[in-house]
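Researcher: Quick test of sequence recovery. Tokens follow.
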């Protein structure tokens, strides 16, 4: 977790590291995916992610969607493997992180703990929700450097 945000001595670095890890917890945000739109078919999540960036390490994304019922489409949440599979909505090596029931109630919470790109998408309809429904977005959470 030692992110270098400038040239610092070891002792300073240690103090800053301790401070920032506290700060990171204090400032970590919980972001509802899509805002009041929640997680549904036909909303531009790439645009949403762009408007809500930057996002930071330890921020939590909350996906809210109704469990399967007679009136709404079921949804889920997958992590796609890389940028290529994100572009193509290719779910072959994707990992399901939330199934069709996990978005109910308070929603499904995903904390971005790693410094890496995250490619989220809905896997329903064999890529149809991802492609036509625009239910996909990418986030690269940044380390916080407020000192
Ligand atoms: Cu969907």
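Model:
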């Amino acid at each position: 977790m030692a992110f270098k945000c400038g040239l610092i001595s070891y002792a300073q670095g240690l103090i800053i590291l301790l401070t920032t890890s506290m700060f990171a917890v204090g400032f970590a945000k919980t972001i509802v995916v899509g805002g009041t739109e929640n997680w549904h078919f036909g909303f531009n999540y790439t645009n949403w992610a762009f408007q809500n960036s930057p996002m930071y390490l330890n921020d939590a994304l909350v996906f809210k969607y109704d469990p399967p019922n007679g009136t709404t489409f079921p949804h889920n949440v997958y992590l796609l493997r890389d940028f290529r599979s994100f572009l193509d909505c290719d779910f072959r090596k994707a990992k399901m992180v939330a199934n069709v029931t996990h978005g109910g109630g308070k929603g499904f919470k995903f904390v971005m703990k790693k410094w890496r790109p995250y490619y989220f998408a809905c896997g329903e309809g064999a890529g149809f929700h991802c492609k036509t429904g625009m239910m996909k977005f990418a986030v690269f959470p940044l380390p916080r450097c407020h000192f």
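Strands lie at 30-32, 60-63, 77-80, 95-98, 108-111, 118-121, 136-139.
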